Amino acid sequence: MRIIEIETRSREELIDITSLIAREVQAMGIKQGGIIIFVPHTTAGLIINENADPSVKRDIIMALGRMVPDSLPYTHSEGNSPAHVKASLCGHCLYIIIKEGKLCLGTWQGITFCEFDGPRRRRVFLSAISY
Amino acid sequence: MRIIEIETRSREELIDITSLIAREVQAMGIKQGGIIIFVPHTTAGLIINENADPSVKRDIIMALGRMVPDSLPYTHSEGNSPAHVKASLCGHCLYIIIKEGKLCLGTWQGITFCEFDGPRRRRVFLSAISY
Amino acid sequence: MRIIEIETRSREELIDITSLIAREVQAMGIKQGGIIIFVPHTTAGLIINENADPSVKRDIIMALGRMVPDSLPYTHSEGNSPAHVKASLCGHCLYIIIKEGKLCLGTWQGITFCEFDGPRRRRVFLSAISY
Q1: What is the pLDDT of residue B27?
Q2: Among A13, A78, A84, C14, which is most buried by a count of CB atoms within 10 Å?
Q3: Which CATH architecture has domain B2-69+80-130?
């Protein structure tokens, strides 16, 4: 298992980590198989979405804010329940197929780390399977 | 890796692809293991839900439309931000266990391709692990 | 493949199943690899979230109820469409990395079974990969 460290800079932030993952896949020397990407936090998650136009990331954060408003009658005393809900909706693990040493992503896809309770120091776990 | 091609017919459409996947699993000759199903698009996703009553698919599309309304102040210039948000909520990869050559799904479960910005020609990546 | 049985007690309930999964991983004797956790139902799902403060589970159920209200004009005759939508949003499969015989989860993370149409007898499928 390998661990990537990420420093987030805002309370809510979507960060494209595709190139970080691709570099690790290359370093691990996996040619054929898959990689599991796992976020070990409860107020951060992982999605796949567009890596080209940054406005998509802004729109996702905005739409999630409408779906899970800060104003609901939450009971969790730490005050970060919306972040917990958003992280659960996004999910925490991805499985990406690897072929000829490359991540099998679509043209516009980026692996996106989702911070919902930053800024914080975060980690991402990677585990590769060769087959 | 195998690739399935799907032709969607509406802007929003949920398509049961269970039998397509089952046929590929059989063709690959996997007896014990698992299959990764991956959608390489940013405005389409993948969920598991009921394959029996088509009204469930309609209700899911309707509820997602209420959660992620077209009327929000999106900034992405292509005008399809709701599709991006919905695809991220659904997710892009599934891992289904295979036992004795069969997909281990529940009685009512169907593997469901989710189109949110069609009609389009779409692809689904498959990768099987034998163990 | 192993199967865990769960008895849910309410219509909506989030149940921490981390220790059940950890026990199975130990029984299977997996030291290095991963485990696939799969919920074979259409009105129940699987998320990862906080296992410490039970108020987080309550807040997630409440926020999902606001996102997917019972009052929408659903057409599915069984009357449990909100449960189908919530299950699809949560998802049905998780992949957890195993290292030295232990689940690689974050400090606060718990593997959480999500009941949205209980009380019922439910099942969880487990499949481990050693590598």
Answers
A1: 96
A2: A84
A3: Sandwich (2.60)
What's this model's pTM, rounded to 2 decimal places?
0.97
Q: What are the DSSP E strand ranges found in B1-131?
A: 2-7, 13-16, 33-38, 44-50, 93-99, 102-103, 109-115, 121-130
Q: Which helix (H) or strand (E) holds C6?
A: strand C2-7
H or E element, residue A129:
strand A121-130
Q: Is the ipTM of this complex over 0.90?
A: yes
Q: Which residues of C touch A116 (CB under 8 A)?
A: none
CA distance B37 to A104: 12
- Calculate mean pLDDT across residues C19-37: 97
Q: Dihedrals φ, ψ of A31, to 5°? A: -105, -40
The pLDDT-based confidence of A77 (bands split at 50, 70, 90) is: confident
Please tell me which chains touch A, using 3 or more CB pairs under 8 Å as the contact test. Answer: B, C
Residues C121-127 have a mean pLDDT of 98
